[in-house]
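[step 3/7] fold_predict: job queued, chain A
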Amino acid sequence: MATFMRLWASRHSSLDRVADELRLAEINKDREMRAAITIQSIRRGIVMRRNIKSWLTSCKTIQRIWRGFLARQCACHVSMLRDKRRAHALWTRMATVIQKTFRAFHSRRYKHSYYERKAYLASVTIKEEKVREMSDAMAESVYLEREQLRMEQDQKEFTTLAKDLHHLVSTSNIPGVFNSPYNVEPVRAFGAPVESHLKGTFQTSKYLKRHMMRSMGSKRYQQVHRHLGASSNSLGESGTYTHSSYPRPLEPVTEEMGATGSNRGSRAA
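[step 4/7] structure written:
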């Protein structure tokens, strides 16, 4: 009771102190509130940053685990596809080898026997040799025929060209074009001298009679022609005629030919 009385007696001072504290509290209310807000914001920031950090760590862990899971699934799928491709390639290779072996066996057994094919190739070789020999013989015969025909054509053409070249034959005084004294051997064609060809072709020329009659006269040519023979070959074989312009006789044969005027007329003819 004494304590209560003592406290009751000092109530006024306590009330004054409470009033002073309330007044100070009212004065410091805003500052304390701002301080409290600052402390709360700092604490809440610390807590939030701590939570965000833990959340980020958790998110990273979750992402890492999920990405690892997806990567393992993808790697497993890729590995499975690779193994399938390898197995398919291996099976394909084995099937190819088996098919090749069986086809080779079937071909050798039922289609193309080695010994039969060898015999067939030997027969083909023999036939080829026979055909080649026949072809060579045929080609050689055709070549010989063509060469003979060409030689005949060349000889015919040469005869045609050399028929009226009697003026190039050698005389007793002047050598011919094809019988030059500077040549060791005379010029040859078809195995004979060119001059012999010229003489022989001129003997068959239709101009021989005209040249002889013009050079000797018709009467004298007939007499010489009767003495030497009917054919002009005897004249060529004797070798007396060497040029178309045979020299006319110095003295006309009056006995057989008659008057001089008639002889001149015959020569003019």
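[step 5/7] annotate
Strands lie at 188-189, 192-193.
The radius of gyration is 72 Å.
exit 0
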